[in-house]
Automatic annotation (TrEMBL):
Record-linked InterPro entries: F-box-like_dom_sf, F-box_dom, FBXO8_F-box, Sec7_C_sf, Sec7_dom, Sec7_dom_sf
TM annotation in the entry: none
Gene3D superfamilies assigned: 1.10.220.20, 1.20.1280.50, Arf Nucleotide-binding Site Opener,domain 2
GO molecular function: guanyl-nucleotide exchange factor activity
Region of interest called Disordered, as start-end residue ranges on this chain: 28-47
Any GO BP annotation: regulation of ARF protein signal transduction
Domain of life: Eukaryota
Source species: Cirrhinus molitorella
Protein's recorded name: SEC7 domain-containing protein
One Pfam family matching this protein: F-box-like
Length: 323
């Protein structure tokens, strides 16, 4: 039923074994001494000296064993809060299987709401007043179906979300949906953003590059908006938009270092070429730090040598900016 549920049950079994060992240890100690007073209550004599947390759960396990039943503990015998917490570690597939055994718990709206928002972080429907009879489990199925449709045909996928009322036909809402979703195929996403430049503009503004070093900011940018495999007009558009956004997020750095959107544009291309040079196994003679500084400062003369040297060190130690 899932590794999360297995770990919980295993911990409970170990806990129950520890409790039994405490009982045996107490019985052995009493065998070496004179028996307890006759007036001592039976329940008090059977209470172990060691305190075991979760004794109620251990008792439930003993009840199941007394009935000669093996397997996982019945979640319906636990407090609802604990049962919901256990099931919250399951994915959608395991939760559907769990609903076959524990129908009320497996269909709990709280669990399906968490699955929806953890997988698709933003949808327009989240901010609306939900109608009576609304089901997050049904919404999860529609979101999953729409994502699969998007990965086959981006336009049809977005149209599916809009027809179900999940998304509003507005560039900012679509950009937020893309930004907070990790199930979309990056190749199809690149095709869609190349066609919808208005969505691309909104998607760029969602990035916050404040106080980030330039190569790290570029990696974060390409993590959400994958770079094309070949240089072309789309790559130039991405770097241009990134350059303006980076400068807008770091006005102090722009003044101190002398950066400008044009200078950042040149540095981004230098970082991409350096990344290819240092990481490609086909390049035998790697570019040295001195060569990188000399070549970069020819195109961006206002940038200090120390700053360009730090750029080289970052790529050399961390790796490709668009990997």
């Amino acid at each position: 039923m899932g590794q999360g549920l297995w770990r919980v049950a295993r911990n409970q079994q170990l806990q129950q074994q520890y409790s039994e060992q405490c009982f045996l240890q107490r019985d052995r100690e009493r065998g070496r001494r004179v028996g307890p007073p006759l007036a001592e209550p039976l329940q008090q004599r059977r209470t172990p000296q060691c305190q075991v947390p979760g004794a109620d759960i251990s008792h439930l396990l003993r009840v199941r064993r007394g009935k000669e039943e093996q397997g996982f503990i019945d979640l319906e015998m636990l407090p609802p809060e604990l049962s919901i917490t256990i099931l919250s570690y399951l994915n959608a597939t395991d939760l559907c299987l769990a609903s076959c055994v524990w129908q009320d718990l497996g269909n709990d709206e709280y669990l399906w709401q968490g699955l929806c928002k953890s997988t698709w972080g933003h949808c327009s429907i989240y901010n609306r007043r939900l109608p009576s009879g609304f089901s997050y489990r049904k919404l999860y199925m529609e979101l999953d179906e729409g994502s699969l449709t998007f990965n086959a045909n981006p336009q049809e996928g977005i149209s599916y979300f809009m027809s179900r009322g999940i998304l509003v036909d507005h560039p900012k809402e679509i950009a937020k949906f893309i930004f907070y979703t990790r199930m979309l195929n990056w190749k199809m996403l690149r095709i869609y953003l190349d066609e919808r430049r208005d969505v691309l503009d909104e998607l760029v503004t969602l990035h916050n590059f404040s106080n980030q070093f330039l190569p790290n900011a570029l990696r974060d940018f390409f993590r959400h908006i994958h770079a094309p495999e070949e240089r072309g007009e789309y790559l130039e558009t991405l770097i241009t938009k990134f350059s303006h956004r980076f400068c807008a997020c770091n006005p102090t750095l722009v003044q101190e270092v002398g950066l400008s959107p044009d200078a950042v544009y040149v540095l981004c291309y230098s970082l991409i070429l350096l990344s290819i040079d240092l990481t490609s196994p086909h390049v035998k003679n790697k570019m040295s730090k001195r060569e990188f500084i000399r070549n970069t400062r020819r195109a961006a003369q206002n940038i200090s040598e120390d700053f360009v040297g730090h750029l080289y060190d970052n790529i050399y130690l961390i790796g490709h900016v668009a990997a």
